[in-house]
Amino acid sequence: MKAPIAVALDAPDLETAARWATLVTPHVSTVKVGLELYLRYGPDVVASVRGASGVQVFLDLKLHDIPATVAGAARAVSRLKPAYLTVHAAGGSAMIRAAAEAAPNTRIAAVTVLTSLAEEDLTSLGLAGPALDAVRRLSALAVEAGASALVCSPMEAAAVRAEVGPEVILITPGVRPHGAATQDQARVATPEQALAAGADLLVIGRPITAAPDPGAAAAGIAAALRRTGGAA
Ligand SMILES: O=c1ccn([C@@H]2O[C@H](COP(=O)(O)O)[C@@H](O)[C@H]2O)c(=O)[nH]1
Hints:
Blueprint: E1 3-8, H1 14-24, E2 28-33, H2 35-41, H3 44-50, E3 56-63, H4 67-78, E4 84-88, H5 93-102, E5 107-111, H6 119-124, H7 131-144, E6 149-151, H8 157-164, E7 169-172, H9 191-196, E8 201-204, H10 206-209, H11 214-227
Bound molecules: ligand LLZGTKA7.
Residues 8, 10, 34, 60, 111, 114-115, 151, 173-174, 183, 185, 203-206 line the site of the ligand O=c1ccn([C@@H]2O[C@H](COP(=O)(O)O)[C@@H](O)[C@H]2O)c(=O)[nH]1.
């Protein structure tokens, strides 16, 4: 069994993304296509990174608009058969419901509070209280509206799990192996901590893709998770 990791293919060009995908797919369950690749290359990027391996594709477009527009966008990309499609939970119940109804065969993953935001950022945005409160509130709202997956920091995974129960898939970016640079991530934890907190899918980008050998980096993290009982 492959490790429950989605490698973020945040590459400047399609050749690099496809090469990373080929290197990591023997070790991880999922590859993630984000805004950089999708906006540059469009829908064809999904087939390019899926390749012959048939690895799961996570389409991280973070849709956030009025319900009718998000429904149209979700319907348009559902033909690419992504395993996951992200929307911002802050778009509200009607928007999340519209996405879930428009793409019934794709898991709608609601992004709660971006992992790049620190507590002081939330205050400056006018969101009172600790990040965890906002994450829990948005998680409950999103699941009630039909999201079957949630995106949160690994620091919040245990509390979100307690809030939404065992069925919802918890996806955690903001994952950094011990000692790795946090870069623009603010609310972070190690892969082992994320798994122990109840995360189902760990999003890891630069610690793998910026390594001299992305395949070896993915294999190393997968092996560390296996030692903690997270992947066979
Ligand atoms: O809250 C969020 C939601 C999405 N992301 C995405 O995850 C990866 C993280 O990449 P790293 O290189 O491991 O930092 C990236 O594609 C983000 O767009 C997130 O970081 N936080």
